[in-house]
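Reviewers of the previous submission asked for a worked example of the structure-prediction workflow described in the proposal, so we include one complete record here. The input consisted solely of the amino acid sequence. No template or homolog information was supplied to the procedure at any stage.
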Amino acid sequence: MNLKYLSKNTDASPLVIFRILFGLMMFFSIIRFWSYGWIEKLYIEPTFFFSYYGFEWVKPFGNFTYLIFIICAISSLFITIGYKYRIAIIVFFLSFTYIELMDKTTYLNHYYFVSTLSFLLIFLPANAHFSLDAYFRKKEYLHIPKWNIDSIKLLLGIVYVYAGLAKLNSDWLFRAQPLKIWLPSKYDLPLIGETFMQQEWFHYLMSWGGAVYDLTIPFLLIYKRTRIVAFLLVLFFHIFTKVLFSIGMFPYIMIVSSLIFFDAGFHRKIIAFIQRFLGITPLSKEIVNHYEYSPFSKKILKSILIPFFIIQLLLPWRYLLYPGELFWTEEGYRFSWRVMLIEKAGNTNFKIVDEKTKKYFYVDNTDFLTAFQEKQMGFQPDFILEYAHYLGDHFSSQGHQNVQVFVDSYVTLNGRLSEPFIDPQVDLYQQKESFRHKKWILPFNSTIKIKGI
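From that input alone, the workflow returned the following structure tokens.
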């Protein structure tokens, strides 16, 4: 890494505003999640939870699950005001990521984005200036290493560009799928519902426009001459997608995050406005021009952040290690910034068989899963396998002998006819979860040409 670049400093204001807005967004996200009753619906009512491989030990705590959300909300407020920032951001990262890992059913790309971003923020001095930490230590730093802010820009760039590369596939570009399925249902939108949402040309325009937007927007934000236009595009794109789709806080998170690309003068004006609005006087007595990491801290940072970004750059390409169609098998699909690329539905029934007598019965999935869990399980192989093991263990504990678990599964992908998904002759109770290819997934009888990631 270029030592000259690492020694460059820049105004701390953009990172300060990013800290404040990030904390506020996370606080309101948690309050929103709680107010909709989703904590109870998703983490308390279910009797079974789908786990991430290697994190099977992460489970909800019954009614004490609310405590995790309280901790997460309080830490987000501490981040906002810059109080005990280092502890607060670590607590937020751990609590938010724990919530994310409690049930794989709730996986969303923007949850993963918040986890990765909060991990990165652990190592950045976002409390250097305009924070309660600066007030109590009676010292604030006006400048921080330039790479602090550039690292956030890099992470945002990875998210956008990889999301754009993922759209360079034949379904998205040449079949306008899955937008051709989703958009016609928005016929009731004022002005544009009947005029545009039913038109095939509009479906293609949205598909191609989305790909071009993702691939170019970080570069347009970097350059000062195109920054204002780029930010207006960010506003339009994310507000429009918010109107069209139920995607929670993600559009607002991306809008707020894009402000990091603006010059320091813009962020200083925001700080000055906050000071006037809240009647805040200067928080500290001593002004220090530059924030400096200790030599030991620099070594730790290099050993953590360089591998962190290498992983972010390489992880989306892991699908190349697996045979078969990515959208069908979903092996290597998650944690890769593939956003809204597939419309998939499945009908998966489980047959419990006595290996010796060959007597069998079918399981009523509603006895064990919520409607949302059953929907997600129906077309995702790792969900199907985990649930098969759960059923095998359950019925074995109920006294059933020589238990085998077979599956009748049919899945439709991006408007195609339903196809057999899982080999019905394979006893899934004998199959183990791993990072290896799942050979019991039946081949996909179509071709989706992947040109990007």
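The mean pLDDT is 94. We consider this example representative of the routine output the project will generate in years two and three.
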